[in-house]
Amino acid sequence: MATATLSPEHKFDWNPLKLLRPRRALHAKDSSNVNDDERKAGVSRYAVIVLNQPLSDNLDLVKTLWDHACIRVAADGGANRLYHVGGQRGDTSFDALDVIIGDLDSLAEDTRHYYESRNNTNPGGQQTRIIRDPDQESTDFGKAVAYIRAWHQEQQKVQGGDDTPLDIVAVGGLGGRVDQALSQIHHLYLFQAGGDEQSESQGEMAYAAGRVYLFSGHSLTFLLRAGRHRIQVRNTAQDEKDDRDENNEVFGKHVGILPIGELSRITTRGLEWDVTDWETRFGGRVSTSNHILPETEVVEVETTRDVVWTMALRGVEGS
Fold first, then answer.
1. Per-residue pLDDT tens over the stretch 183-198
2. What does UniProt give as the signal peptide span (predicted)?
3. CA-closest candidate to residue 98, choices 65, 121, 64, 75
4. Residue 319 located in a structural domain
5. Which of 40, 144, 162, 166 is deepest in the core (most CB within 10 A)?
6. Tell me: the pLDDT tens digits for 291-300?
7. pTM, rounded to two decimals
């Protein structure tokens, strides 16, 4: 089989460290001092969706994501998960929830009461909108993404001059039943549909509406569109010089590159078992349980078709 030719325009840089270890230089001020108006004005450049999966693993990283998000949305029963680790225990860390959206068949009464009561007792402060969308042709995850993207478009109109897309981090991604996990991977493709791989504009269109990440207590997962990708997995030497108190090790060593749906040919650099022009497909060869080398700061992946990249978080068993 002939190898597909990759256009040099199809290049993508990734720095997921900005999500999980936001440095002071990336934000106007510490998250504890960032008020809701400043969040919505764009102090941070991503939104958080909480899915209906347990939040007990890596809760500190969940709080980091939460604190620096510009909008926070619970997909139906995801609000229950926030309440169970927060309000139910007298912890207000997850009170600043902007929206609960979905068909609301999973929203518990005590969770609804908690957020409705907080709205009533804090009329001038952060309010939580509860939106019932009964559409059975879309998932609660999809409804949350649609809400965030519509909200972001409205913010762009109000602020003017800023057409930067808004990335989304789905907390609880890849948890639960196998069909739920596969559905969430399906949504990575659905939410980041771009131009045809032969299109000259694919490099611009591939993530035109923003990038979507699936965060679980064990891993971070995202879609690599056909092209060349540079994924920063550790702070560079200059980053460490600029901000010496940062924890440099966010990710564990294990990574996987999964060719969901179609055959691809991949080339990698920075892994223990690098490959060159390597055919990968389900039912054939698949790169799983590969390792990031200790000295690697940036992993490079070239792929002829869309593939899913997943990497373990530090401290997870086996990572």
1. 999 999 999 875 444 4
2. none
3. 75
4. no
5. 144
6. 999 999 999 9
7. 0.86
CA distance 30 to 83: 24
Locate 253 and state its tokens. Answer: 């060593």
In whole angstroms, give the CA distance from residue 149 to residue 193. Answer: 14
pLDDT at 68: 93
Q: What is the pLDDT of residue 39?
A: 47
Output the six-digit token pair for 62. Answer: 């969940």
Residue 303's domain comprises: 11-313
Measured distance CA(68)–CA(72) in Å, rounded? 10
Rounded-to-integer distance, Cα 62 and Cα 69, Å: 11
- Rounded-to-integer distance, Cα 42 and Cα 20, Å: 17
The alpha carbon of 179 is separated from its chain's Cα centroid by a whole number of angstroms, namely 19
* Distances in whole angstroms, Cα of residue 185 to Cα of each of 87, 188, 203, 296: 30, 5, 21, 27
% helix, strand, coil for the chain, step of 5: 30, 25, 45
**Is 26 contained in some domain?**
yes
Is residue 103 in a domain?
yes
Say how many domains are in the chain.
Answer: 1
Helix (H, G, I), strand (E, B) or coil at 111: helix
DSSP three-state, residue 268: strand
Residue 25 DSSP one-character state? G
Average pLDDT over residues 34-48: 60
DSSP string, 37-72: HHIIIIIS-EEEEE-SS---TTHHHHHHHHHH-SEE
- pLDDT for the residue 25: 32
Measuring CA to CA, which residue among 6, 35, 61 is closest to residue 213?
61
CA proximity to 304, closest of 283, 271, 279, 287: 279
Closest CA to 261 of 193, 168, 200, 167: 193
- 32: CATH: 3.40.50.10240
The pLDDT, as a whole number, for residue 57 is: 82
